[in-house]
Inverse folding.
């Protein structure tokens, strides 16, 4: 009986995407453009956090934001209110962006006058973590209502990110959320993680994130 040929498609897809992502990252480096890939669950406060962050950085950098969603332009309109350049990316039902999609978004954003580009990825803790977008750094928002055990349930997301924003700390008294336990869980997955508690609604802690971004952009441009 003839043996069936098995092709590892998933591995090939990831390897190809990783190569394209590195090419994009190298190009952005040469142009002096820092790209932040921001990921989280739906409703964690990505757009509100971005608005607060842009308010603190718009006098320092020329900022452009790519809002990725399955449909609608709600988030792009919200970001446009800050004065930052903003476009909406529709993924056609896909739950993530890869390197080629990110490149298309950057081309549409017209980054010739952009120093800091931000990709607000599709709300999902699984697929976005699997695909390298070509970003300079990855950031993730974990909101208090989601629970302090998320790093245990979604290991890859908490491995690939560089900075973690613990959002909605204003509602901690109303949820069974242990900040120290959350820190330990994150550091178990990622010993080099930067962890910043914030409240996007009030702006508490966002200065620390803005300062972290400034440091990263400065290093990227060297």
């Amino acid at each position: 009986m003839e043996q069936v040929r098995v092709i590892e498609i998933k591995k090939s897809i990831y390897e190809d995407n990783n190569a394209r992502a590195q090419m994009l990252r190298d190009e952005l480096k040469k142009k002096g453009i820092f790209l932040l890939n921001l990921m989280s669950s739906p409703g964690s406060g990505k757009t509100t956090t971005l608005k607060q962050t842009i308010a603190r950085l718009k006098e320092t950098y020329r900022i452009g934001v790519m809002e990725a969603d399955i449909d609608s332009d709600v988030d792009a309109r919200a970001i446009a209110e800050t004065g930052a350049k903003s476009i909406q990316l529709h993924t056609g039902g896909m739950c993530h962006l890869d390197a080629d999609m990110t490149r298309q978004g950057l081309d549409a954003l017209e980054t010739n006058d952009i120093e800091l580009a931000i990709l607000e990825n599709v709300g999902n803790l699984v697929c976005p973590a699997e695909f390298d977008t070509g970003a300079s750094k990855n950031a993730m928002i974990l909101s208090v209502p989601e629970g302090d055990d998320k790093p245990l349930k979604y290991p890859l997301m908490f491995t690939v990110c560089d900075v973690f924003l613990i959002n909605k700390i204003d509602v901690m008294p109303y949820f069974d959320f242990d900040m120290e336990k959350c820190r330990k869980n994150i550091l178990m997955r990622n010993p080099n993680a930067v962890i910043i508690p914030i409240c996007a609604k009030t702006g508490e802690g966002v200065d620390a994130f803005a300062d972290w971004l400034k440091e990263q952009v400065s290093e990227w441009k060297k």
